[in-house]
Amino acid sequence: MIVLVVNCGSSSLKYQLVNMDNEEVMAKGLVEKITLPDARLTHKWNGRKKEIVQPIPDHKVAVKLVLDLLTDPEAGVIKSMKEIDAVGHRVVHGGEEFASSTLITDEVMKALERCSAFAPLHNPPNIIGIKACRAIMPEVPQVGVFDTSFHQTMPPEAYMYGLPYELYKEDGIRRYGFHGTSHRYVADRIAEVMGVKKEDLRIISCHLGNGSSLAAIKGGRSIDTTMGFTPLAGMLMGTRCGDIDPAIVCTVMDKHNLSAQEMDTLMNKKSGVLGISGVSSDFRDLGEAAAAGNERARLALDMFHYQVRKLIGALAAAMGGVDVITFTAGVGENGIEDRVAICEGLEYMGAELDAERNNVRGKDALISTDDSACKVYVIPTNEEIMIARDTKDIVSR
């Protein structure tokens, strides 16, 4: 079975074509700046790369261009679109309606539209991508894989907010959590690497990048996570503020005469390590600035490391202990010094890094000492293969 994995952003489209017989990535690429005259498609296959720069007015045109490349005599890896057996779509928010991946029908599309109210920046582009693929490939099964579904196993005491109960019942105000596809992949993979059943593990999965979240995974099920009603909640991130006193929102809006949209922009795009440092949201830039003596860059990194460490402690308490801590995503997989700073102070729970083992980037690796009671691993995430696996499973039923 050949599965096309599609991940649509507001002006981008990431894709992979996967042969599920051996999970080989046959081709992959990225379309950027959709709707702009200088839109760019970067297509990779068989160790080769091709770039196309041309106007791409909408996602439907982007999907058509991708399919043309996949079947191109030179850059293609399949002879025709008929070889694509199914399409798997990343969808950020499934609300309470989707506790697992699902085959997309007209009724499901209506439900996705309803969920857009929870993720107005993310879901609409996801829906546009689905509609584009359905229009071009009407006979090909389409599957939605949701970032939120993995966290639907959280108990009420973990997902409820201390607001009037009616806001939950009538408006769906609750903690949903995100990065679920990544956390689920890591939970499966770490069990495989360690040679144990995931049902026997208490895992704290640290997905650290421009967007960051931690998840407490007990027996293979998410029981708590740091993101909430939106991906803004939780810890300090690249440009997002994370958890703050709610009264700050009213105070800042009133004092600086900000609209709700302006306040949302401030918290989502002007805060985080960018807002603290004034340098960058890129942790590599922050590390260089801090090493050069920039105190605000150092403060931003210290805050980030402190908050991850504190949340690890909280999630360990939620599970009654922890067997393994995993680091994944851009910072988690590549931030050697970040991992050191985060783990300093976790010795009380039996987590001790081995400096030589920790000198690793982007591959599965044990990075704790042999006598560390709580093991620490780097596990590169692979959300695309999870989407492809779910898609194969659903269309094969």
TrEMBL record:
Predominant place of localization: cytoplasm
Keywords: ATP-binding, Cytoplasm, Kinase, Magnesium, Metal-binding, Nucleotide-binding, Transferase
One MF annotation (Gene Ontology) recorded for this entry: acetate kinase activity
Annotated protein name in UniProt: Acetate kinase
Cofactor binding, note field: Mg(2+). Can also accept Mn(2+).
GO annotations of cellular component type: cytoplasm
Enzyme Commission number(s) of this protein: 2.7.2.1
Organism: Anaeroglobus geminatus F0357
Enzyme class label: transferase
Site (Transition state stabilizer): 179, 240
Catalytic activity: acetate + ATP = acetyl phosphate + ADP
GO biological process: acetate metabolic process; acetyl-CoA biosynthetic process
Gene this protein is translated from: ackA
Function: Catalyzes the formation of acetyl phosphate from acetate and ATP. Can also catalyze the reverse reaction.
Binding, substrate: 90
Active site: 147 (proton donor/acceptor)
Binding site for Mg(2+): 7, 383
